[in-house]
Amino acid sequence: MLVVMQALATDEQIRAVCEKIESLGYRAHAMPGAQRTAIGITGNRGEVEPGTLDEMPGVQELIRVSKPYKLVSRDVKDEKTVISFPGSDATIGGKSLAIIAGPCAIESRTQAFGVADRIQRSGAQFFRGGAYKPRTSPYSFQGLGEEGLRIMAEIRDQYGMRIITEAIDNESLALVEEYADVIQIGARNMQNFSLLKRAGRSKKPVLLKRGMSATLEEFLMAAEYIMSEGNYNVILCERGVRTFADHTRNTLDLSLVPAVQRLSHLPIVVDPSHGTGRRDKVASMARAAVAAGCDGLIIEVHSDPDHALSDGAQSMFPAQFERLMAELRIIAPAIGRSVCVEPVARRGWSR
Ligand code: PEP
Ligand code: MN
Is the CA virtual torsion 301, 276, 258, 187 positive or negative? Predict the structure, then answer.
C-alpha cells in the first residue's frame, strides 16, 4: 500500500500520516519526490487495513502496490535517486557518472596509495578496495581487515576521494560503516538476508552487487530488504552472471541497466572487471556500459597486476584506466551524461 500525498501537503500532514501508519502497527517510509511525497507502508503480513488514512488532511489517494518490491519501485518514487556525499561534489545517480576505481584488495599502504594517486589524477571520485575479501579458497589472501580500512581512510583524507569497501558479515559491517563512505555487499552475499537487514539499519549508502545467478526480481528484492529497514541510499551493481561462455569469467548482462531503470529509481553502476574477468575486455565493456546508460562504473586497477594478491588478470594498468577515462568523456555527452574532469582542472579541490 502506498499513500500518495497532495502536491501541497505540509510536513505536518506528512508526519501525521506516518504516525497514523505506525499506530496501526506498520512501518511508514516517506519518499519525497519532485511533485509530491509518497509514503510506502511495509511490515504488513497480509493486506494493509488502511483505517481512515484516506480521510486524513493532505492525502490524495491510496494505491495498492501489486509488485513484490515496493520501496525500490518507481511506483513509490518516479524521480531517480541521487546519492550525495557531504563535503564532496561527487554523486551517484546524478548527471555526472560515478567513477569508482581501485585495486581488488588493499594489499599494503604503498600499493594502495600508488593506485589511488594514479586514478585520482585520471578523474575518479571514488576509491574502491577490499579489506575483507570473500575468496573461493580459504588459503587465498583474505584481506588486511581493519588495517586495510585505515589505509583507505587515509587515502580519503589525502585525495578527497570517497571510499567504498566490502563488508562480508555483520562483524565486518560494523567496522566498514565506521570508516567507509559506501558499504559494498558482494555478489556472494546478495541473499544474505541478515546482512542486508543490518546494512539497512546503517546510515551509510550501500552498493549491492547482483548475485551471480540472480534474476532481476531477486536482485530488486535484495535491495528491498535494505530499504525496508530505513536505508534508502542503495546503489545496484551489475557484475556479470554465470553462463556457459568460457571466453570470460562471467557474462556481463548490460541489458539489466535499462531493465532496472524501467522498474526502479535506484542508481545502477556496472562492474566490467568482474563482469569479464579479463583485462583486455574491460575497456570495451566499460564504454558499452556507459552507452547503455548506467550511472557509473566500478573498475579494478592495479599498478602491478601480475603480482596482485587477488584478481590481477582483470585489473587494468593505471595508464589503461587513464585512456578509458578520456574515451568516456567523449562517449558520455552523447547520451546526456558527463564524466568528472581531472582534479587539476577542478575548482576548490585541495590535495
Ligand atoms: C569485488 O568487488 O572485489 C568483489 C569481490 O566483487 P563480487 O562480489 O562482484 O564478486
Ligand atoms: Mn575483485
Answer: negative
Distance 232 CA to ligand 2 centre (A): 26
What is the grid cell recorded at 271?
A: 562492474
Query: How far apart (Å, rounded) are the C-alpha atoms in residues 218 and 224?
Result: 10
Among all bound ligands, the one having the nearest atom to the CA of 167 is 1
Ligand 1 contact, 100 CB (< 6 A):
no
The overall pTM is greater than 0.90 = yes
Helices (H), 1-81: 11-23
Pocket flag, ligand 1, residue 104 (CB < 6 Å): yes
- What lies within 8 Å, CB to CB, of 113 at 6+ separation is 151, 154, 155, 158
Ligand nearest the Cα atom of residue 185: 1
DSSP 61: E
- Per residue in 133-167, pLDDT tens? 999 999 999 999 999 999 999 999 999 999 999 99
Q: Tell me how far apart the alpha carbons of residues 309 and 307 are, in angstroms, rounded to a whole number.
A: 6
Pocket test for ligand 1, best of 166, 236, 248 (most atoms within 8 A of CB): 166
Which amino acid is present at 98? A
| Other residues' Cβ atoms within 10 Å of the Cβ of residue 241 | 18
* 59-63 and 296-300 beta bridge pairing: unpaired
Closest residue to atom 4 of ligand 1, CA basis:
186
The segments of the chain whose pLDDT lies below 70 read 344-351
Atom of ligand 1 nearest to the CA of 311: 3
Judged by its nearest atom, the ligand closest to the C-alpha of residue 314 is 2
Cβ(186) – ligand 1 distance below 6 Å: yes
pLDDT tens for 95-114 read 999 999 999 999 999 999 99
User: Residue type at 230?
Assistant: G
